[in-house]
Amino acid sequence: MRRLAATSTAVAALLAVAACGSSSDDPAGGGSGGVDRVKVGAIPIVDVAPLHLGIAKGFFKEQNIEVEVVNTTGGSIAVTGVVSGQFDFAFGNVVSLITARSQRIPVKAITVGNSSTGKPGADFGGVVVPPDSPITDAAGLAGKNIAINNLNNITDTTTRASIRKAGGDPSNIKWTELPFPDMPAAVLGKRVDAAMVVEPFFTIAQNQGARVVAYNFAEAIPNMTVAAYFSTEQTIAQKADLTGRFKTAMETSLKYAQEHPDEARQVLQTYTKIEPAVAAKITLPAWPAEINRESVQTLADLMLTDGLLKEKVDVAELLP
Predict the structure, then answer these.
(1) Whole-angstrom distance, CA of residue 268 vs CA of residue 47
(2) Which residue among 28, 144, 179, 316 is buried most deeply as judged by most CB within 10 Å?
(3) Using alpha carbons only, what angle is made at residue 304 by residues 120 and 233, rounded to the nearest 5 degrees?
(4) pLDDT > 70: what percent of the chain?
């Protein structure tokens, strides 16, 4: 909880700076030459393939937007980047966005980012253990050292839910923050007991011998919305035309990626170091047209159960 308090204080200071330096409005049609240049914070994983595919297909150019993607390591970093003005928009997991709203940080989702496939055994992320680990299921993760990308986000929240559903006690887990690319080696080297990892590193870890003991996204909540593209309420209000065009381009990109999975796999090689053979094998997330609002509320309720929130949060203010 100390981390949450520190983050809240830092973001509050950034909000004050951003407010002092903000422009009054954004003229329709963009900046110089009619093109708006925007920075989008996004973690370099399979989840954001539609963003990169949309840039390659010209969907943002059609909306007079030139996108620069800036890599992040997770949702909390994305929130800080948007609030500080480092990014115009960002991709972030919904637990990080709920946490921000609970701390009166005015972030707001613009459109869906991605979703679980809803299929245990065929999802794009899960908890893996070394090949000779005695852990055989989610209940066995109780009391273990588990790697996650960021503390207090969707990975630990859904892992706790998965353990609880399997009959285990998730209250005494030791969480270790690691970037997703470092997790396969950490598991195989037994620097942690397990790791909650997403594609393409989920398949890479399994190719190296790691075993899957939980599909926490699919097990926690049916058809769960994992992440969203978002900005601050201030940016959305002051740059309504730009935000609307970004939303249109992003939704076109999401639909195209969902309908053209082979192209989504190919674009991975432009922003990750994934080998083509691995890209062909990974499980893609779902890229639905809309946010599953019920799943986001259920996540907020799980956060309350786990002590990440002090009081119940109605996610209506967060969602578009």
Answers:
(1) 10
(2) 144
(3) 95
(4) 90
Residue recorded with tokens 């869906």: 112
CA–CA distance, 282 with 123 (Å, rounded to integer)? 9
> Peptide bond preceding 134: is omega within 30 degrees of 0, i.e. cis?
no
Q: Burial of 40 by CB count in 10 Å (0-12 exposed, 13-18 middle, 19+ buried)?
A: buried
- Pairwise CA distance, residues 43 & 195, whole Å: 18
Residues 6+ apart with CB under 8 A from 153: 74, 75, 76, 93, 95, 96, 99
d(CA 12, CA 144): 34
State the pLDDT at residue 34.
Answer: 86
Q: Residue 185: in which H helix or E strand, if any?
A: helix 183-188
> 125 by DSSP, 3-state: which?
strand
User: Model-level pTM?
Assistant: 0.86
